[in-house]
């Protein structure tokens, strides 16, 4: 009886320490390693206010661009492990960079701790309205008849938008001319202006352009057609490669952040993304909430690092360093 009382009392005394270990005590920097207007930036600004309310601290979105996302990722990797600096980005950035940059300034597995996946948004393959194609069949026929003539705008050399377009060209038995931009938003603007003839971008960025008639949608990746553009077939329906491609957004913190704090941030993120207004807005943008947790995030990152790394090495994709 007496021993039980001591143990219970010890547990009660330990609780304030446990609770403090789950607290963030200063303004939160939500780092996006891409330019404003991209999927990561849109999502960060969407969740900033409700996340601030949930964690009890102001949340400031910071765009730290450059080096294929490595500048922003390195900033978080070298931050204090107190949860006050977070990284929000497309998981493919972390998956492809080890193959693109042999000497990264940080170790993804050691220096960054996965917290949770956030959303998935399929890619929309779209073409310029000036291009004389109307659907997937005519696009493939045009590409085969004009090898190298399609200027495929992407979010940067080695990004998934580049890799998927390359995979499609290989499957079609032709070539495209890759035109890298500093992010998905500038690539889309290049397509609208007619500077580029084709691009691949997350639906969160590109769906509105297709719906408004500023570019012509051809197909979508992912498991199903998008309600806003139901006439666009999926890659799987067309027998095209990379049917699961898209923007898988996730959030990470510094690798040595206490597990209790990581778990709390994960719980709060799940609650934020379950809020009807947030969930509805993500759906309007063509995305789906995917809060599978840290373990699933870690597994997907490992799988994509392996599969996309093989594509990069096979095609000898290199970036200027």
Automatic annotation (TrEMBL):
<protein>
    <submittedName>
        <fullName>Tripartite tricarboxylate transporter substrate binding protein</fullName>
    </submittedName>
</protein>
<dbReference type="Pfam" id="PF03401">
    <property type="entry name" value="TctC"/>
</dbReference>
<dbReference type="InterPro" id="IPR005064">
    <property type="entry name" value="BUG"/>
</dbReference>
<comment type="similarity">
    <text>Belongs to the UPF0065 (bug) family.</text>
</comment>
<dbReference type="InterPro" id="IPR042100">
    <property type="entry name" value="Bug_dom1"/>
</dbReference>
């Amino acid at each position: 009886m007496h021993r039980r009382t001591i143990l219970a009392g010890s547990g009660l005394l330990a609780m304030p320490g446990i609770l403090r270990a789950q607290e963030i005590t200063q303004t939160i920097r939500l780092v996006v390693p891409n330019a404003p207007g991209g999927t990561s930036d849109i999502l960060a600004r969407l969740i900033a206010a409700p996340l601030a309310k949930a964690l009890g601290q102001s949340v400031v979105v910071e765009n730290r661009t450059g080096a294929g996302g490595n500048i922003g990722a390195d900033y978080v990797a070298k931050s204090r492990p107190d949860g006050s600096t977070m990284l929000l980005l497309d998981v493919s950035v972390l998956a492809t960079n080890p193959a693109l940059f042999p000497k990264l300034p940080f170790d993804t597995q050691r220096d960054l701790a996965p917290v949770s996946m956030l959303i998935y948004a399929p890619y929309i393959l779209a073409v310029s309205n000036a291009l004389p194609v109307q659907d997937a069949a005519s696009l493939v026929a045009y590409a085969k008849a004009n090898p190298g003539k399609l200027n495929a705008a992407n979010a940067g050399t080695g990004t998934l938008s580049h890799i998927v377009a390359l995979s499609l060209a290989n499957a079609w038995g032709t070539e495209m001319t890759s035109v890298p931009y500093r992010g998905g938003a500038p690539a889309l603007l290049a397509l609208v202006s007619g500077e580029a003839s084709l691009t691949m971008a997350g639906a969160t960025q590109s769906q509105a352009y297709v719906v408004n008639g500023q570019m012509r949608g051809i197909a979508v990746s992912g498991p199903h057609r998008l309600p806003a553009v139901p006439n666009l077939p999926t890659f799987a329906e067309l027998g095209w490669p990379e049917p699961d491609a898209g923007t898988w957004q996730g959030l990470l913190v510094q690798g040595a952040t206490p597990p209790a704090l990581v778990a709390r941030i994960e719980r709060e993120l799940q609650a934020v993304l379950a809020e009807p207004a947030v969930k509805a807005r993500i759906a309007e943008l063509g995305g789906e909430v995917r809060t599978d947790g840290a373990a699933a995030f870690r597994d997907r990152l490992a799988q994509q690092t392996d599969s996309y790394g093989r594509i990069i090495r096979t095609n000898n994709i290199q970036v200027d360093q």
